[in-house]
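tool_log.txt
---
The assistant was asked to compare two proteins side by side. It first ran the structure predictor on the initial sequence, then on the second. Raw inputs and outputs are pasted verbatim so the downstream comparison step can read them without reformatting.
(1)
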Amino acid sequence: MIGGDITGLLADLDTLFDPTNPHPLSIATALSFRGLGMFSSDPNNVGDLSFLAEGCSEINGLSLVTGIETVGGYRFDFNGIKETGKQPYEDDPPRDYAVLAHVTSGVLLFDITNRAAPLMVGRIKIPGSIAHITVDRANRLLYVAGRGSGLHVVDFDTVPTLGSFDRDGDGLDDRVLETVALPTLATSPDDPRGTNAPIAILPELGLAFAGGVNQGLRSLAVGGPTLVALAVEAAVPAQPATPTSPAVAAVPAGRQRQITRLAPFGV
């Protein structure tokens, strides 16, 4: 599948580097109308690419995938540790995953720990069609570009399953936590216009950026910032006493204080 064999098929790609893996430098690809394609690159000769395996993404007769992101060393609570009150995931071995955007069938999750034998282990049905996926590892969320339907916020903490996950019986997958409608020229959730560009997230600032064809760029607040901003104070010289005020001792430079508001910083 190297070279001409994937011409016209390669929609997106991501990499994984793990020096302990038999294939330390791997490339996971989204191959339109085919599914997942796994390749290996020799770290000592990065131009030497070799095909490893293919993961079929055909669902309901369609295999069209348009986006992919990998996440290495990720843990799901397969052993139900959270239910016991113990530290979640501590007994669950880390595994490597490829997350694919299937245009009509939503999010597909492949276990690619064994690079030469990818296995589909999860599916999350998304309303309408989708274009790209971004993983927010820190908050265990997925952000999904939903074309005409906007931006979907999806749980990436629940143990993956290939079956339906609809405990409340409303016909929607419970792992779809929120759908943010964005202004667009798209006329339906399946309209290819709209939110079809990869989503950029800054979890430390609680921001996401989404957009696409005929829509432009949108910024969204998706959570509280996790960064702590500090100001380092300059030295303050000693001030002698005056008839109206007491003497002030010198303050050395380097004292820090937390910034709790932006103004006048950045103004």
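(2)
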Amino acid sequence: MQKTVPSGRALVPFVSVENMARLITSIGLPRLLTELVDYIEQDFRRWQSFEKAPRVASHSEGGVIELMPTSDHVNYVFKYVNGHPVNLQRNLQTVVAFGVLSDVETGYPLLLTEMTLLTALRTAATSAMVARLLAPKDARVLALIGNGAQAEFQAIAMQTICGIEEVRLYDIDPAATAKTRAILRRPASGSPNAKASKRLSLARRSSPPARLTSKMPRSSPITWLVTGCISTRSAATAPARPNWPLPSSPVRMCSSSFRPRPGSRARSSRCPKISR
């Protein structure tokens, strides 16, 4: 009896969290972030080639589970991600994710991979890409407002891509700030010097102003942005639950807000286009 040999696509490659961590270590975080930023910018430049759809969200009392699909008609991909703040009480991660990459022509899955680490890297790389294009060239100070798990990724990405030398930290939870500061001060992280800030204001007179800010979901509202600052916001934008009240007027979502410097070519605070 002739033995049936499966096709080369019968076995779908799988990248676990452990293997993803090994891959990041072997490549090196600075090089990985630099190449990731370049790839993300290339995809933004071909924005119109992607199918874009709202997240498919399933809400519960404890959190939300979402599917995030897109396709460029060559490859189809989706990410499964959750957001469960109550997991902190269970000693579990609040966010976990995995993703599938498929071939559109055959429908075959090409890759199954963890995306918890990838999400942290991609989010930080996207902020750094925006900052590289829009931030003042002399920006050397970053303010991180909200010091959750994403904060240290933001700091390292901004240092690697934008040359940040100092990070100022703020969070409504002092323990979160202490955690982030401790991580960024580790020599192995290669991260800039981190200083804690107890108030939402510009620097003291003896310190240069912060020219870059990154706002996380845990933080208080920003009231201190001034001309010459660029702000990126890292937060989930899941569809509202059916029983949530809708805003009385349309809300325009944007991944970054920019206030141009005097005399710059940007004429408004709308999301600027990437120049070709």
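---
observation on (2): The chain has a mean pLDDT of 77. Residues 12 and 150 are 30 Å apart (CA to CA).
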